[in-house]
Amino acid sequence: MRFQALRQEVAHPRTSVQLCLLGIVGGTLAALIIILFRLCVEWIRESGVATLTSWLVHDWLVLLLMPLISVAIILFIAFLTGFKHYRLGIPFVIHRVKYFYGNIPFRTTINQFFGGMLALAGGFVVGREGPSVHMGASSSGLLGQWLRLPYNSVRILAGCGIAAGISASFNTPFAAVIFVMEVVLREYKIHIFVPIMLAAACGSVLARSVFGEVNELSFLSFTAFSQWMYLYLVVLGILLGMLATLFNRQLMRVMTWFRPVSMVWRLILAACITGTVGALLPEALGANFIDVEHLFDSDPGTLLLVSVLVFKVILAVFAIGLGIPGGIIGPVMVIGMLAGAVLLLPLSYFIDVPEFTNSFALLGIAGMLTAVLHAPLAALSAVMELSYSPQIILPAMLVIVPAYVTSTQFFKNRSIFILQLDYQNLPYAISSIREALEKTGVLAAMNTDYKLFNDAPEKALTDHLEKEPTKIVVQQSKFEIDVQYKLVQYNVSLEHDATALSYYQMEGLSAQSTLHEVYEHLKKSRSGAVYIYDQDYNDIIGVITWNILQSFLQKANY
């Protein structure tokens, strides 16, 4: 009973100090894991390249072998943990948040930590936000399970972990909050928004204390330009919408083509493709923002810039499509930066291209994120935080809107996460009734003012109901192997042979459950009740009747 008051409070769908503190603790745990993950990636990347360089004479041979070595270790770890636990990535997390209150299987988290670390160090065009989201949701969700919190608060904690993970990865706390609300939870409620915001802030503070105040995209400073260029921004948005549609469809095509192939051979093929391209064009490897900065600083020619863009798209499509552990947001951002720089080149006759390269790279990020993920608010907030400039809001809007409309209306493109969920047959849509009921835990709704009888005769039950007709009466029957509970009420039927009392068999629900589980038990009969237990299935701590549940269903909301 140590945390009973805490559980009772967070079962309510309302903002509370307790829920905020839980968000801070969950965000801190998630951020610490992500910081450890980032440090491990940097260490393996530096030590691995140094070791291979000392063994091999040619640099191209190092670039060729790095992906193959990474895949070999990834497969070994997947073998140890079980290949059935290889489900990972943001689509899987969305599914678990929607249908399992954010509970993530621990073995998938192990695969994501080591697999993502090796994939990033091996030069694959994948992002670290995929592992960050997965591990963030898992760590915060495990905190909720350890405290045996109601499932409605466990889901909020998973959202806190996701926000802290993204914030610790990119140092963009506001964009992290918007991403969780817009893409993962797909709702805006104050009692959810506040703890997630605190968790994102914790992730950013801890990341800055380790990696410094400046984020990796600080080199992308926005330069204001003349208003005559606004018309071209609409064209830029249309072209980015077309590129995003191409990217999504080719990614899904690769996933479909190679579905019959075993995971082992898919990962080996991805390593061979990445290694071969990397040996020929090293600039195409990875989804590191620092590499794009070096590319821009080197004043690349048009051919090199276009080549890097094309091969980045190809390597990202094959790496993600063939199952390499890692995220899609990082590659989309890098592709958006390169696409923005390439699409600036037609204006070289009118403006100084190097002066506006960073601005168009930021706008490229906004357009690609919007059209690929269908997250316009997250894209807008991301470029605002990355540029530290409010002047980008209007130009970004002029890119985001045509990119989104072009992608969705003219090319019927859908969010890449939704496409992947449908491909993997992972449900993600829930009914409005379920969505409303899952916000409240049974601890917040159960009635503890009930009268419990132990194998009492019918006369004793009738006498009590005559004195207190509105009170809940429960009959307990003990057997050799278990205990059964029945709700006792007056029989109000008009049948001529009806008995005085009606008995309704009661099923037990864990104290972590939400009102949705109550609804699932009672919706057929539209009557009766369930009893709530804490740890012992036979130990009743409260009762929820159909009438109590109905009052929540009909409750007015602002």
In brief, what are we looking at here?
The chain is an alpha/beta fold and 558 residues long. The chain has helices spanning 4-10, 17-55, 59-81, 90-100, 106-121, 129-146, 151-170, 173-184, 190-211, 230-257, 263-280, 289-297, 302-321, 329-344, 353-373, 376-387, 393-410, 416-423, 432-437, 442-445, 458-467, 515-522, 546-553; strands at residues 450-454, 472-478, 483-490, 501-510, 529-533, 540-545. It folds into 3 domains: 4-214, Clc chloride channel, CATH 1.10.3080; 227-424, Orthogonal Bundle (Clc chloride channel); 442-557, CBS-domain (Roll), CATH 3.10.580.10.
What summary fits the major beta sheet?
6 strands, mixed
* C-alpha termini separation: 34 Å
- The structural domain count equals 3
Helix residue percentage: 55-70%
Placed side by side, the strands forming the largest sheet appear as 1-2-3-4-5-6
Which fold does the CATH topology of the largest domain refer to?
A: Clc chloride channel
Protein structure class: alpha/beta
Please state the CA-atom Rg, rounded to the nearest Å.
28 Å
Q: Name the poorly predicted regions.
A: none
Order of helices and strands: HHHHHHHHHHHHHHHHHHHHEHEEEHEEH
CATH architecture of the largest domain: Orthogonal Bundle
- Please tally the β strands and state the result: 6
The rough form would be described as elongated
Rounded mean pLDDT score: 89
Number of helical regions: 23
Strand proportion, as a percent range, falls in: 5-15%
